[in-house]
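I'm stuck. Protein, please.
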Amino acid sequence: MSLTEQQIERYSRQIILKEVGGPGQEKLLASKVLIVGAGGLGSPAALYLAAAGVGTLGIIDYDNVDLTNLQRQVIHNTSDVGREKVASAAEKIKAINPDVTVQTYRERAAAANIREIIKKHDFVLDGTDNFPSKFLINDVCYFEKVPFSHAGILRFDGQMITVLPGQTACYRCVFDKPPPAGLVPSCSQAGVLGPLAGVIGCLQATEVLKYLLGVGELLTDRLLIFDGLGLQFREVKVTRNPDCRLCGQEPSITELADEEQAACDLKASQ
């Protein structure tokens, strides 16, 4: 693939970075990234990945745009209320950058369908708002050996980690299984500050681009925690768990299954 004159101008501020250059930009245009959840985290990530020239963006989300989403889900407008989120997101992505191919999946991520979708991509960005989906994404990515960025937000706090399946600690190494029902309040119960989604979603997009370009140090084996009220970041070192039920020495999880426990309103979409 060779860049056109228009593409050289569009991506010029990236191309002049020695870590990117023309070959790096061509690599981005040839890459495929799946964003699971066109909500608070997926919105800013999708906008910046599109602007950066990631050639194919997959968007999976089952919900329609709700008025309560607009406080943080910046890819959607007031006029989009009632529309399918994937259609709304695809429209904004194409408006930003016609170079990007958008593939939409209006379905709920489940064990029966997610594997075939994820395996088509180079990287997965987890923008979901519920524990069952997060564990499912982790498990599928491990089986398919597709790297992914996990993140979660609630109130004024956020956290994230990048996982290279089979090489670094996975989500189950850190959390093992969903918490008991009722232990963690939902987004609709506890609330979330809108810009927090932008902070964490943009950090996820940065991780995606670093991975695709093969530059920098990824957020692997480190859980990054952001305190919005104190405006502080801290890291918690994590390591692969030899007893992990998924990636450990004697795994007990050998096939996909949907977790039953739902800890956050599925329609809140972070």
Confidence is low (pLDDT under 50) at residues 262-269.
